[in-house]
């Protein structure tokens, strides 16, 4: 039996940043070619529990043959069950997630996400294959703000969906594409994407002479050097196939690309792919009756620790307010206020017209 023409490598790293503890979790499961980053929310270790459940349940589901979005839905139900069992103390427990599954024989990859954890593809350009489930992204999509305004928006960390949120339906995004000659995938929590510009991401991921672990560590260090207020987690997955001609003629469409960045300047490249296609979106109602339980999976794991048996950087940085992390869930009040202001404007305009 001949050896496969393809090779998959993966590495990950994490750091608590300026926070007192790390609520991120991640998985590298080379046996099933499954990779995931989850960013827990809730404080007092509840976020860490949520992100760990998210990873454990999702990897178990994928190993059993479940698709990524349905697997996240099961993880969502498992976190909700944990909240119900733990009482009021865990009511704010939730987690974002981004997951990648490679199917080498089919020369195909798929991904799913909820919240603002991201997945980038490096193939000579840096491409964003996820779209944040965030307040700012929804305003941008509706044309109410510009990209420049979105980058500096004071509410850019407010997310609209996450695994375990009992007050809103779960919304997951999906994307997929062909695996050709070579590709490098970057999965990360917002602790990286919020503070490290695209130009720096490009500069680090393109260093083919460096090992994946060296590049993963460099990405985390770049976020720490940039201030690192939040937990920082990255997973790098490399795909190489010597049968590139066969792979490129597989007939599988490429993924939807939301943003692309120039590899030298890091500037955004005007993108039209998003206008031509949109990812599959699945919604799970709030307080779902779906069931699922978390089990610890084998393979490389991360829950506040780096993989490959390496300890996470242990810099004892000063603690920043945990309240800012939980504040991402106060978006509903903000939207309600906006709606009331808009309604007031409409009434005032009507009264003015009636009096004229």
TrEMBL record:
Stretches assigned to the PPM-type phosphatase domain: 7-239
Region (Disordered) location: 1-25, 268-322
UniProt biased composition (Gly residues): 294-306
MF terms (GO), sorted A to Z: protein serine/threonine phosphatase activity
Basic and acidic residues composition-biased segments: 268-277
InterPro entries listed in its UniProt record: PP2C, PPM-type-like_dom_sf, PPM-type_phosphatase-like_dom
Residues annotated as transmembrane: 331-351
Record's keyword terms, sorted: Membrane, Transmembrane, Transmembrane helix
SUPFAM superfamilies: PP2C-like
Record's keyword annotation contains Transmembrane: yes
Secretion signal, residue range per the UniProt entry: none
Record-given protein name: Serine/threonine protein phosphatase PrpC
């Amino acid at each position: 039996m001949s050896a496969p023409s393809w090779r998959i490598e993966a590495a990950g790293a994490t750091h608590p940043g300026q926070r007192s503890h790390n609520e991120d979790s991640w998985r590298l499961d080379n046996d099933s070619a499954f990779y995931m980053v989850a960013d827990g929310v809730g404080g007092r270790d509840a976020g860490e529990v949520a992100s760990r459940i998210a990873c454990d349940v999702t990897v178990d589901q994928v190993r059993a043959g479940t698709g990524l979005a349905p697997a996240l839905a099961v993880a969502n139900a498992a976190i909700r069950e944990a909240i119900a069992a733990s009482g009021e103390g865990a009511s704010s427990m939730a987690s974002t997630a981004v997951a990648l599954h490679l199917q080498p024989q089919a020369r195909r990859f798929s991904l799913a996400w909820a919240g603002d954890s991201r997945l980038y593809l490096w193939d000579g350009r840096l491409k964003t294959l996820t779209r944040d489930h965030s307040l700012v992204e929804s305003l941008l999509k509706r044309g109410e703000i510009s990209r420049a305004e979105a980058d500096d928006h004071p509410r850019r960390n407010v997310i609209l969906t996450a695994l375990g949120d009992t007050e809103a339906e779960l919304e997951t995004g999906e994307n997929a594409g062909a695996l050709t000659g070579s590709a490098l995938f970057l999965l990360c929590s917002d602790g990286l994407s919020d503070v490290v510009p695209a130009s720096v991401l490009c500069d680090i991921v393109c260093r083919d002479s460096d090992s994946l672990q060296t590049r993963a560590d460099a990405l985390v260090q770049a976020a720490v050097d940039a201030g690192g207020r939040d937990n920082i987690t990255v997973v790098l997955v490399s795909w190489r196939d010597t049968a590139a001609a066969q792979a490129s003629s597989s007939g599988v469409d490429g993924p939807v690309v939301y943003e692309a960045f120039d590899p030298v300047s890091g500037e955004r490249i005007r993108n039209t792919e998003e206008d031509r296609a949109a990812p599959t979106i699945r919604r799970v109602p709030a307080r779902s009756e779906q069931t699922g339980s978390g089990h610890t999976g084998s393979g490389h794991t991360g829950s506040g620790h780096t993989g490959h048996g390496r300890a996470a950087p242990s810099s004892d940085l000063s603690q920043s307010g945990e309240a800012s992390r939980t504040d991402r869930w106060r978006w509903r009040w903000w939207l309600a206020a906006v709606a009331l202001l808009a309604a007031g404007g409409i009434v005032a305009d009507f009264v003015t017209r009636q009096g004229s």
